[in-house]
Amino acid sequence: MLMKFYGELFTFILLFITNFRVFFVKQVKKDPLVSLAPISFFVSILQIVAWGFDLFTALAFIISFLVLISNFHAIFRYSENLYIDHYSPLMKFWAIFTTLLSVAAIVFNLMYYPVELNNNKLNIQENLILKTGSFRTGFEDTKPFEFSKVYITEFSLKPVAQKDDNNSSYLTNTYQHEEIQKSEVDKVVLFVPDKRGDTQYYKPYLQALAKEGYIVYSADFFCDDGKWFHNIADFKPFRRFFLTLSSILNNQKFESQREYYTYNISQEIKAFTSIVSQLYNDDCELFIVTDGMGKTALADFMKSKPKNVIGTFALDSVPEFKTPGYGCVEQTDPFLAYILGAKKDTELTAPKLLALKTKHEIQKSSDIPKLPEINLARDHFEEN
């Protein structure tokens, strides 16, 4: 999420420079800085495509659009290699207005910057698996120039490079964490995120769980036969925003749709377990974690007694988790956390606790001995 933050900050700074230039015209000259207006607008669109539509990306888009429109005449003059000697009063008014908006956006963005830990510092590797297809026909690897319908993110510890007898490097499944047992590493955890969160908003939890030694997969489905709104709100960049908005502004209506949401997530769980099982040729033990709207769907799925699923866990069963259904927004989206009555947490208290609770549930569901209790006050999540 830090890349999203930097992209937004970069856009707002470009907009500030574009607007502020009009107050420094002292002689006849060209206006090359006006080219920053269309660049800012283009970057704001890329931000929405890459990270989704939310308050900050929407703010960047709206301000950049206003700047683009107000500078249209100046852009035309610059494209024709014409010179300027002054700006009109109307242009200066718009420049003042959009400059103030840009400054406010920069301050607002800095106030609610996200908290994120680098995978390399945690000794974690993150891989993306792309699939195309549908729930009806099945899924296969995305080919070049195809649109992906499933985004599966894998989190796991990095293998340690060791030396053989010939002093050649090779990778091993031994990890730099003595407290992690080999049987723990063999466990595969599937996480089914609430659609108001998606994988990127649960990332601190997924990182913490991978740090405990598990191979963790999280999947986001955007299939044509798995619609949530049946309109443009189903478009990947918009879905999370409109589901979140719906649940906050009209929770009664949102709750009335639970049965339909459960059906959609039921399809996702079946497809998700099938895809991951194929990766391991059905030779793996799966533990499934969900949150919020996925709990009922997971309970229904377990009634079919899937042979390789050893247990389940719901994050919203943890009382200390203050933003169930929305992800770890105390780190990934501090402004949404503020709306929900929570505060930004730079210590990652909730993700660490959720990971440890999940770990204990996995151990209870398997026949391996339970590891000693971990002191939550210890900074267990930092790099050793």
Task: Give the integer mean of the pLDDT values.
Answer: 84
> How do the helices and strands follow one another from N- to C-terminus?
HHHHHHEEEEEHEHEHHHEHEHHH
Kindly estimate the percentage of residues that lie in beta strands according to DSSP.
5-15%
Q: What is the number of beta strands?
A: 9
Low-confidence residue ranges: 168-185, 368-384
Q: How far apart lie the N and C ends? A: 24 Å
**What does the oligomeric state look like here?**
single chain
Structural class: alpha/beta
Number of helices: 15
Instruction: Output the radius of gyration.
Output: 24 Å
Q: Could you give a short account of the major beta sheet?
A: 7 strands, mixed
Widest sheet, order of strands: 2-1-3-7-6-8-9
In percent, how helical is the residue content? Answer: 40-55%
Shape: elongated
Structure notes:
This protein has 384 residues and is α/β, with parallel strands linked by helices. Helix content is 46%, strand content 14%. It has helices spanning 2-20, 36-51, 55-70, 72-79, 89-111, 119-122, 182-185, 203-211, 236-249, 251-256, 258-279, 295-302, 329-332, 334-339, 349-365, and strands spanning 124-134, 138-141, 150-157, 160-163, 169-172, 188-192, 215-221, 286-290, 309-314. Helix 3 runs antiparallel to helix 5 and helix 8 (203-211) crosses helix 15 (349-365). The two termini are 24 Å apart. The model is unreliable at 168-185 and 368-384 (pLDDT under 50).
Secondary-structure blueprint of this entry?
Elements (H helix, E strand, L loop, with lengths): L1 H19 L15 H16 L3 H16 L1 H8 L9 H23 L7 H4 L1 E11 L3 E4 L8 E8 L2 E4 L5 E4 L9 H4 L2 E5 L10 H9 L3 E7 L14 H14 L1 H6 L1 H22 L6 E5 L4 H8 L6 E6 L14 H4 L1 H6 L9 H17 L19
Parallel strand pairs: 6-7, 6-8, 8-9
Antiparallel strand pairs: 1-2, 1-3, 3-7, 4-5
Helix pairs in contact: 1-2, 1-3, 1-5, 2-3, 3-5, 8-15, 11-12
